Amino acid sequence: MSRLKGCAFLVYLLLLTGSQGVFAQSPVNIKLKFVPRTEAKEKVVPDPTKLSDLVKAEATADSEAGIARVVFEVNDQFKAEVKTPPYLFNWDTLEETDGESTLSAIAYNNNGQTGTVRLKVTVENQLSKGITYYAEKALEAMRRGDEIGLERASRRAYKINTQNPEAVRVMAVLIGLKGDINRAFGMLNDNQNNVPKDAPETLEVKGFLLRLRAFRNGNLQQMLPDLQEGMTLAKEQGTLLLRKLDSATPADKADTKGRILRGDAFTSQLKNTEALAEYEKASALAEGKDKKRAQLRQVMSLLRLRRLAEAEKLALKVVTSSPSDPKAHAVYATTLYAAKRYQAARDEVAQGILAKDPLSLIVACLSDLLLNAKREAYKEAQMAVEAADGGESQYAAMCLLADAGEPEPAKKSYINAALNAPLFMPVFIERAFQNIAYEKREDRFVEAITLFDVVLRAEPDNAAANGGRAYAMLCQKRYNGAKSYLTKFSNLDPTSPDLFVLLAADASRDEKQAKAVTDALSRARFLEPVNFKMQALPPIEDFARTMMRFRRVIPLTPSLLDR
């Protein structure tokens, strides 16, 4: 038999009842083919020689007498009956043994006559790879927001052994995603399942489910407890990972890989000073690619610590030594973006865009938004999601969609980003500004302040959150309350143009401060002439979109650096 693939695959072996030829003299004509699953992100037709997990088959049948029903069988065993078109069958191949099988479709016309088509296929679920393999694949899929990949891997792990803690843990994620979060928590907490409660993976799964439950609650105040507990678990996960690393290898004995893992754990806890120290030690120990991997992480930590000059210097050094590496150029471009040199950042990632490097595409998208090149930004955001669908690319998508005037799709991207990057604070900052900019409800400022406070509880010295909270309070005319946040914003980011607009707004309450207002706006224009062109102070509520766009950052994370 020849190997037949894709849409061209219609019939592998065709036998019509009472006939030896294709449709020869039969009153019932029937064809059978595999089709992509509707919910799959990538619409790929299953390969009949390598079927696994859930697959969808479609029969087409006709007869002058009319079709009454179509029956699907696997290895001559009844599976399903469909009475109206489309005649679709969702086949769970995990119910079969690996190896050859026969899928049959039997069409009955209104006279009781039949036509049958059979496909010889091969089932390859490869359950022999084991629970640990598929449990890890399921968690990887969860982290990148791939529900289909999660479903495929978790179902295989659970098929091997429904009592195994690793299998139970990933199946709980799938059940939660399907809508039954209470049952998911029940599985994790059931002592008979023996799911280790203090394992980093368990905390990760529980945190994900808490965030999932939070975002399915439309009321922000009601979702806060789950959201904050989910963030707490994300931090605890990093602590447990550090303990696990220390128990395997003491900190003073850690090699390059161990140092990087420790740095990543600190990064996940928002402990950027400690993370930087680990990456510096890793860089000192390493050579070649490992050294570059550690150095790029150093740049990430330096940027998070607002040590921009050091970050740019190190990134340039890495680019000079690796001129053909798109990732190195993208990290250097990130430092240029942080320095508000958007065109230079965009130019730096030209090579990475051609290579479809996810970080390069995100840098290009966010730079183009600030350069008012929205059409190019749209393409780059789409390519970034296709290249690496996860919290980082969804953050870029939510920014693009907001600027394109599509608040509802932007909200969906926000949820996807927050689910998969729980401690990446710019996601919540962006959403807070979007609330002010696009919502018309009276409580939009309260909701924005609530989100800024979520960030400040996790990261008190976050400049954007302090500035955002000050801005929201100025919009509410809570001038005295805004003062402390405005002062902290000024201390954290003293040369930021949006700071001077807020200072102008605060000073404008006093007619005697007219010169201070003019001087502050002049300073804002000098610092960023592309996006801050205002000659007069705009209505403060109208400043949300400008400040939102300016407060965006490149989502530099360990996972994105490794893609």
Give the structure's gist in a few sentences.
By secondary structure, the protein is an alpha+beta fold. It contains 25 helices and seven strands.
CATH class identity of the domain at 444-550: Mainly Alpha
Strand order of the largest sheet: 4-3-6-7
Assign the CATH superfamily of the domain at 444-550.
Tetratricopeptide repeat domain
Q: Enumerate the spans where pLDDT stays under 50 for 5 or more consecutive residues.
A: 1-25
Helical amount = 55-70%
What does the average pLDDT come to? 91
Q: How far apart are the termini?
A: 40 Å
**What is the correct CATH architecture of the domain at 444-550?**
Alpha Horseshoe
Number of helices: 25
Q: From the helix content, strand content and strand pairing, which structural class follows?
A: alpha+beta
The CATH topology of the domain at 444-550 = Serine Threonine Protein Phosphatase 5, Tetratricopeptide repeat
Written overview of the protein:
- This protein is an alpha+beta fold.
- Among the domains are: 29-125, Immunoglobulin-like, CATH 2.60.40.10; 128-215, Serine Threonine Protein Phosphatase 5, Tetratricopeptide repeat (Alpha Horseshoe), CATH 1.25.40; 324-422, Serine Threonine Protein Phosphatase 5, Tetratricopeptide repeat (Alpha Horseshoe), CATH 1.25.40; 444-550, Tetratricopeptide repeat domain (Serine Threonine Protein Phosphatase 5, Tetratricopeptide repeat), CATH 1.25.40.10.
- 57% of the residues lie in helices and 10% in strands.
- The protein has helices spanning 131-143, 147-160, 165-177, 181-189, 200-215, 220-248, 256-268, 272-285, 288-304, 308-321, 326-338, 342-348, 350-354, 358-370, 374-387, 391-403, 407-420, 426-438, 444-458, 463-475, 479-492, 497-507, 514-527, 544-550, 558-561; strands at 29-35, 54-62, 67-74, 77-82, 87-92, 99-109, 114-123.
- Strands 4-3-6-7 form a 4-stranded antiparallel sheet, with no helix packed on it. Strands 1-2-5 form a 3-stranded antiparallel sheet, with no helix packed on it.
- Strand 6 (99-109) and strand 7 (114-123) form a beta hairpin.
- Helix 2 packs antiparallel against helix 3 and helix 6 packs antiparallel against helix 7 (256-268).
- The model is unreliable at 1-25 (pLDDT under 50).
